[in-house]
Amino acid sequence: MRPNVSRRTFIKGSVAAGIAIKVSFLSAPAQAALVQTPPLPGPDWLKADGKPKYRLDAIAKVTGGKTFARDYRARDLENWPKEQAHAFMLHATKADRIFEGIDLSLLGDDLKPDRVVLHEDLVADDITIPGEGFYGDVFFVPKGQTARLLGQPVALLVYHDFARYDAAKRLIRFDDTVVRYGGKAPYSHPAHYGAARYVRIDGGTPDADDRYSPLKDAVIYGGFAGDEPAWPAAGEGNAMARGMAAAAQIEKEISDAGNDLLVFKHKYFSQSVDASAMEADNGNVWYDASTGVLHIMMATQSPYEVAEVSASLVSKSKFHLKEVDLKVGYTVGYGTKDHSIFPFFCVLAGLYGNGRPVRLANDRYEQFQMGLKRHAFWMDNTLVVDRQTGQFRAMTGHFKNDGGGRPNFSFSVGFVGATAAQSIYYLPKSDFSAAAIASRAVDAGSTRGYGTLQSMSATEMMVDEVAEILKMDAIDLRLKNVFKSGMKNTQGAIPAGALRNEEILLKARDHPLWTNRAGKKAAFDAANPGKRYGVGYGHVQKDYGTGAESALAALEFDASGRIRFAHVAHEIGTGTTTSQAIMVGDILGRVPDETEFGKVRWPQMPLETSDEPYTMSQEDEDKHSKNPRWTPSFTSPMSATNSVYYLGHATRQAAHALVDLAIWPAAKSLWSRGIGGGSMTPYSVRREDIRLENGEVNAGGLPPLRFEAVAAEAHRLGLVTGVTVHTFNRWQWTEAEFDIPNAGRVRLPVDALALKYGDGASAETRTLMTLDGWQFVDRAAVHYPPTQRNNAGVTYYAPMATLAEISVDTATGEVTLLSHHSIMECGTQVVPELVSGQIQGGIAMGIGHALKEYLPLYEDGPGDGTWNWNRYELPRSKDVAVWTQTVEILAPLSETDPPKGIAEVVMIAVVPALANAVSHAIGKRFYDLPITPEKIRGALA
C-alpha cells in the first residue's frame, strides 16, 4: 500500500463540524496577526540603485526590538492578561521500563506545581493527539506502558509565577528519582514508516524513451518483513511488478559483470545531528474559556498547520472552542520547527493554565532531548563503471534512515534522499530504495538537507574512490558522466532549465587548489613533519521545493502611488522579507511602502481545498478543478528552500499582473494625451518596452513618468490597482485563464486571482468588490500539472561545488581547514548579500557534519536529557577558515533567469570535499561520518 506522504493531509477534516473556527482555510477566513509586521526599516535602507544596504529587519534586531517569538511574554501582546504563567515537562529517559508515575516530593509544598497534567487528564478531557499517527499516538506516556521514544514527556507542570517555576525546574533537573519505572517491557515504538523504490532503465541513449521509470510507470512501494523492506514480486503484471523485474535485470547485470567493468560496492553511514538553531522551541498560549478563543504565540515554520491542528485538537475535546487567534514571530529552525509536535504541547499548557497565558519554552537541554533531529542514514551503494572509458553504466543504492519514535516526515526524507543519490551524474540504469525505520530514538524530521546531504555525500565519496582505482583525475571522471541539460534524472523526469554542472567542473579543474595540489602536498609534507596536506572536491545538485508548493501574495497602490504588499511568507532567518520586497522593487521600480508578511487572513481568496496534493487521483483532481474556487493546497510552510523561487513566484506574478493591467495602460493614457495621440503615436512602442526604475516609468524613448503620476491615472481610469494571486506548483506551474474587465481573457501562471479597482471605476465595477474590497475572479479554465508528475520526485535543481584544503596532524588526528573555494549557480541573485550569508553559514554547518557533530541514537543519546553544547561539538570560526574562504557564483545566462533555492545545497558539497581531502592527505578512506580525530588516529595506528 502506498503510504500517505503529504505534508498536510494529516489535518484533512480536522475541524469539528458546526464550530465556527476562524482557522479553516477551506471556507472561512483566518484570524491571525503576525508580530513581525512591522518592524520597519530605516529611511536609508535602500541604496541609490534600489538594492538594500541592510535587511528589512536589521534595525529591529540590532536595537533589541522584539522580533523572535521567544522574546514575547503575555504583557507584550495586545489584549492578553498581564500575568504570565510558565510550564515545563518531565521526560522518560528509559524506553524499556514500565512508567509508573511521578514523585514530586523533593519539591516540598513551596515548589509544588499549580497544575500537573498527565496522559490520564487528557483522556478525561477527550484530548487526543492529532494527525492520524503523524505525531505518534499519545502526547504523554500512559501509566503502565513504556515510552514510545526516549525523551517522551510523561507530565506537564504548570506554575502561575516564574520564581517558583524556575526554582522547581532547577531542583528537579537530572534527578532520576522523579520519574518512576517498574519492570522491563518490550519497546513500544510505532511500526516502520514506509519503503519506496525508484528504478529506471533508459532506452539506450539519454534522449530515448525509458524502458522503465517512475515518471513513466510507477514508484514502487513496499512493506516490511521485520526490519527489512518487503517489495512486490517481479513480473509482467502491474507497473510495480514490472519495476521489480527491471530492478532484477539491473542486479543480474551487476552480478554478471565482466572484467571490463569495475563493480564498486561500499556501505556508508551518516550520523544523527542536532540543527542547533539558536532559538529553541517555544510558545505562549492563552485559552480564554469565557470567549472560547485560543490565543497562540508560536515559533513555527508552518503557521497554517499549527492553527489548523490546534483547532482540531481543542475542538474535539471538552474545552469549548470558537476561534483560534495565532500570532507568529520570527524564528530560525532549519526545518526543525516545520511540523514539530512541540506547538501542541504548548496548546496543552494553555488549556490547563486556569485562564492564564502559559509559556512553554525549551532550554537547551530540553531542546536536545526533544527537538527534531537530522536522520541517521545507512547506505549500501554499488557503482558500475566501464574501466576503459570511465562511463557509469549503473548505480544502485539501498538506504535506511532512523526516524525515531514519531513518524513525522521520515518516510518522505528517506525517498527524497534516494531520489537525490545520483547527484550530478547521468545514470543509464539505476535502482535506489529507501526504508524509513521506527525506533526508540528521538524523532527526526525535515531538517536542512532533507536526506540529500546523507545520500549525495556518499555518492561523492564513492566517485572519488572510483577515480583513484581507475587512476583517473577525479574531476575528469565527473566530466565524463556529468548530468547535462535535457537528460532524465533517476525518476525519468527532465529537470527545469539549463544544468550548468559541466561549466562548474571546468572551473574547478582549472582552479589553483586543484591544479597545484600534488606539488603543494609534497612541499607542505616535507616542511611540516607530522602533518599531511590534502585537497578534496565535492560537487552536488540539490532539489528545492516539495512538489506541492503554493503561496499567496497581494500588491496594490493608492492614488498617491503608495504601494502596499502582503505575502504569506514569514521570516525564519533566510531574509525572505527583504528579498520579497526587493523583488517588487525590481519589477515596479519601487519597493513597497507598507509590507505585511506571514499574512494569514485572505478574505479575498475564498478558496477550497482538501489538501491532498500528493495522494489525490487524477480523476478526483479533474472533478475538483471544475470548481473555480478549488486548489490542491492553500499554502506551504517556510521550508524546502521554497522562499525565493516558489513563494517569490507569487510576488513576481502579482507585480507583473499589476504592470500589465494598470501601469502599462495608465502610462499609455498619459503618453497619448494631446492632439494626434500625443508623444506616443509617432513611435512604435510595445508592452515589452516598458521599464520601471528608480520610481519612474519609461518605454521606447517616451518621456519618463513618475510612478505617482501613473498611479493617479490608473485610479482616475478605474483600472485594476490591486492584484492578489494564488499559485500552485507540482514540479510545473499551474496556469489558469481569467476574464478581466477591459483586458479580456488572460492566461496567467497562477490558479486564483482577486482584483481591486481604482477610484474612478464605475459603480457597476465597484459592486464586484465584495470581499473586503476585492473581487475574486472565478477562473474560466485551469491547467493543473498531472498528478503523475508527483513521481518526478524533483525537476528543480541548484548546483554547488567545493574545494577544501586541509592539513591533518598525524599525532592528534586533528583536521585543520586551511581554505575552501566554492562555485555555485543560483540563477539571478535577488539580494547577493543574502546569498553570501547562506553560503557562509551553510558551509559552516556542513563542516560540522563532516568533522564534529554526532549524536548517539539510543540510551546514551540526547533523549536522556543530559546533552548540551558542552558535549555536542559545533564548529567555531577557527574551524571554518573564516578568512580564507572564497566563492564564485556563475553569472545568470540572462537577466530573465529566475532565482534558485540554495539554502540547503550550500551545506552539502563541503561534506564529501572534506572526506576526500582527508583521503588525499593520509591515504585512508572513511565511510562513517563524522571523521573525528579518534577515527583518524585509529586508521593511522
From TrEMBL:
Signal peptide annotation: 1-32
One Gene Ontology MF term: iron ion binding
One of the Pfam families matching this protein, by short name: MoCoBD_1
Boundaries of every Aldehyde oxidase/xanthine dehydrogenase first molybdopterin binding domain copy: 263-482
Record has Signal as a keyword: yes
Alphabetized UniProt keyword annotations: Signal
Aldehyde oxidase/xanthine dehydrogenase second molybdopterin binding domain: residues covered: 508-880
PANTHER family, per the entry: ALDEHYDE OXIDOREDUCTASE MOLYBDENUM-BINDING SUBUNIT PAOC, XANTHINE DEHYDROGENASE
Record's protein name: Aldehyde oxidase
